[in-house]
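Below is a filled-in request sheet from our internal design queue. Each sheet records the structural input a requester submitted and the sequence that came back. We keep these sheets so that new team members can see what a complete request looks like end to end.

REQUESTER: design group, bay 2
PRIORITY: normal
MODE: inverse folding
CHAIN LENGTH: 439
BACKBONE (tokenized):
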């Protein structure tokens, strides 16, 4: 096992780092790593933080020594919108709760939704007018919200829920999430955050009411949760409150991340026509599995490479709950820890030519152990519960879209990663779609 040494920033460099972490966190974390090594310590508003960038240390923190850590300040603030859901809840409640949600995830038959995800995607593509500009980011975020609502609630939002509820979930949810920014101690625009959160939560209540009225005998996640939570009384307020926290968490955690992964994928494909041409050829000739979906690895390689370069959750934080050491680095109670897939995924020790988009690096023969430095979904007990689900839906959406049209991005050179709670492209992506053939 390796031992790591810490570089403590001098007073002056520490001030430079804390200012720049607020304004340009991606570049700052990367510069700190390149200049000072695998563990850098700095102080922000009186708290000591350690940025760990070595895969072995990341694994220790997330997996082997997870019990020594608790949720970071940003997730404590996120409780205003996600309540005591799986992302924000503390460790004491987490273990049992995660087990019950794991059960619901396992029992729900997500695979049956494949054809429906494809038809939601086709409906979306059909609504685009050939030759007209469309806001691709918005379209993909709405589509992924519809997909996740289908998977979790078995609800076709467009057909079964009023458009106002959908709009509120989409726009107020996005606004509330955008107010949560790492390294900031408070919400941006607190009063707008409060009103957006309250509209978002009433929309979730609405969705739940409609769904409960339809009956909960099905095979979807909502029905499993409802049956598990309501054995004693369907009216139990605390249980319904917990369900609302879980569903708002799953809806938010589930659609922003996956939508951004797809947005970055389209942006990267636009900049790499050679990969896009290869995909085009492949989408018309590749063999299909029983459900008619492309299961060959090219789509998966493209998606993996997109989330390596643009990990939707670009940073993970922890607070040290109980004193411990990580590969010889002593951490005292209350210390903060940051881990950044953005930094580790772009480290040339693990990925050759790390800043380049090379989907073929994910074919088994070329990996050379780089998987251990790849953690877009985290690791250990708090690892993303939707990792496989998100790959499942993304593969279907991506392969359906590229089969039916080519997306020519407009002014894509000005697009930059915006490191808020999630890593989204800014400004939004705009395209003029070119239909290959009518759906
Ligand atoms: C590309 C898509 C996604 C990415 C990159 C992603 C990434 C992550 C990461 C890195 C974590 C761990 C955070 C930490 O350790 O602090 C996480 C947790 C979580 N994710 Fe995802 N996620 C994605 C999609 C989804 C989907 C589709 C869902 C739900 C259906 C989901 C639900 C969750 C939940 C509930 C947690 C908290 C798990 C826990 O603490 O037990 N995610 N996600």
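RETURNED SEQUENCE:
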């Amino acid at each position: 096992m390796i031992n790591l040494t810490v570089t403590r920033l001098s007073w002056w460099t520490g001030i430079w780092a804390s200012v720049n972490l607020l304004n340009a966190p991606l570049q700052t974390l990367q510069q700190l790593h390149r200049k000072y090594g695998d563990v850098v310590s700095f102080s922000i508003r009186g708290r000591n933080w350690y940025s760990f960038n070595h895969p072995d240390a990341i694994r220790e923190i997330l997996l082997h020594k997870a019990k020594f850590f608790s949720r970071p300040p940003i997730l404590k603030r996120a409780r205003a919108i996600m309540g005591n859901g799986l992302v924000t809840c503390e460790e004491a409640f987490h273990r049992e709760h995660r087990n019950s949600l794991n059960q619901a995830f396992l029992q729900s038959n997500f695979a049956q939704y494949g054809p429906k995800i494809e038809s939601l995607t086709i409906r979306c593509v059909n609504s685009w007018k050939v030759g007209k500009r469309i806001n691709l980011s918005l379209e993909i975020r709405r589509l992924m919200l519809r997909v996740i609502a289908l998977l979790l609630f078995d609800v076709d939002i467009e057909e079964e829920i009023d458009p106002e509820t959908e709009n509120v979930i989409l726009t107020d949810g996005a606004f509330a999430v955008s107010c949560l920014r790492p390294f900031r101690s408070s919400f941006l625009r607190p009063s707008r955050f409060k009103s957006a959160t309250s509209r978002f939560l009433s929309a979730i209540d609405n969705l739940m009411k409609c769904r409960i009225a339809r009956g909960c005998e099905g095979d979807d996640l909502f029905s499993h949760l409802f049956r598990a939570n309501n054995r004693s009384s369907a009216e139990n307020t605390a249980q319904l409150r917990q369900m609302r926290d879980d569903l708002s968490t799953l809806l938010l955690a589930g659609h922003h991340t996956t939508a951004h992964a797809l947005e970055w994928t389209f942006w990267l494909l636009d900049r790499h026509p050679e990969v896009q041409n290869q995909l085009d050829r492949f989408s018309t000739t590749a063999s299909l599995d029983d459900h008619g979906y492309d299961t060959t690895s090219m789509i998966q390689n493209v998606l993996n490479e997109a989330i390596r370069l643009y990990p939707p959750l670009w940073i993970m934080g922890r607070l040290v709950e109980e004193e411990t050491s990580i590969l010889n680095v002593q951490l005292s109670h209350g210390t903060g820890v940051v881990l950044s897939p953005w930094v580790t995924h772009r480290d040339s020790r693990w990925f050759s030519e790390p800043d380049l988009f090379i989907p073929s690096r994910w074919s088994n023969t070329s990996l050379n152990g780089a998987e251990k430095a790849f953690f877009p979904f985290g690791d250990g007990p708090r690892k993303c519960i939707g990792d496989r689900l998100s790959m499942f839906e993304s593969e279907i959406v991506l392969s359906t879209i590229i089969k039916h049209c080519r997306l020519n991005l407009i002014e894509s050179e000005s697009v930059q990663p915006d490191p808020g709670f999630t890593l989204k492209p800014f400004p939004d992506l705009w395209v003029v779609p070119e239909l290959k053939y009518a759906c």
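SHEET NOTES:
- The two ends are 55 Å apart (CA to CA).
- The first strand starts at residue 6 and ends at 8.
FILED BY: M.R.
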